[in-house]
Amino acid sequence: MFRDRLDAAKQLAQRLEHLKGHNPLILAIPRGGVPMGRYLADALEGELDVVLVRKIRAPGSPEFAIGAVSEDGSMKLDDAASQFSSAAVEREVEHQRKLLKERRTRYSPIRPPIPPEGRVVVVVDDGSATGATMEAALKMLSGRAERLIAAMGVGSRSAVARLKAAADEVACLEVPRGFMGVGQFYADFSQVEEEEVVELLGRSSN
Questions:
Q1: N or C terminus: which one in the chain shows less Cβ crowding within 10 Å?
Q2: What does the pLDDT look like over 189-202, one tens digit per residue?
Q3: How far is 177 from 104, CA to CA, in rounded Å?
């Protein structure tokens, strides 16, 4: 469906072209969303930063997400979390909070996060299977941004429906049937390394 993340970002930039001239704040979800966010910030003449959220993994099943936690400490647990002991879930939450603090230190060693107050904010990721991570990011920004837009290359129907309740607008290029995973819809879904994230965030907009 997409050649790579840059292909998806170019298509999203066309979808969001009306934001050009409004100095939008592009908040990318690391790591896959950052290359897309860099392109969007340049194309829409905005600023780029990251919004830090992490999936809460099911104890013993790290591929299964049972919620998400954001860097401000807030978290959202899915109903599936009730299948596990509260102590095990809390250990996982604390682990992810620690990783979030480490990431902020690594990504923003010189300047603090860009404040979203009064801005048109676009939260971008390469895709969303459950909507949990993107929803956590949107809820952290709710009431602070002037307008909140969730942008992604591909999303499941359930994820898009979930995000419509948390954002002013959802810009999702493809909502396919038979959704199994985000990588299914990218010919090149190579992992984005931490070094690339740091380099892209440090690069000023054109």
A1: C
A2: 999 999 999 999 98
A3: 36
pLDDT at 203: 83
Give the type of residue at 100: L
Tokens standing for 120? 């048109």
What distance in Å separates the CA atoms of residue 134 and residue 24, rounded to the nearest whole number? 18
Beta strands at 147-155 and 120-128: parallel, antiparallel or unpaired:
parallel
Residue 130's contacts (CB-CB under 8 Å, 6 or more residues apart) are 65, 78, 156, 158, 159, 162
Length of the chain: 206
- What's the predicted TM-score (pTM) here? 0.86
pLDDT tens-digit map of 140-164: 898 889 999 999 999 999 999 999 9
Confidence of residue 204 (pLDDT cuts 50, 70, 90): low
How far apart CA 20 and CA 13 sit, in angstroms, is 9
Alpha helices in the chain (DSSP H): 5-15, 33-43, 86-107, 132-141, 157-164, 194-202
Structure-token pair, residue 96: 């992810």
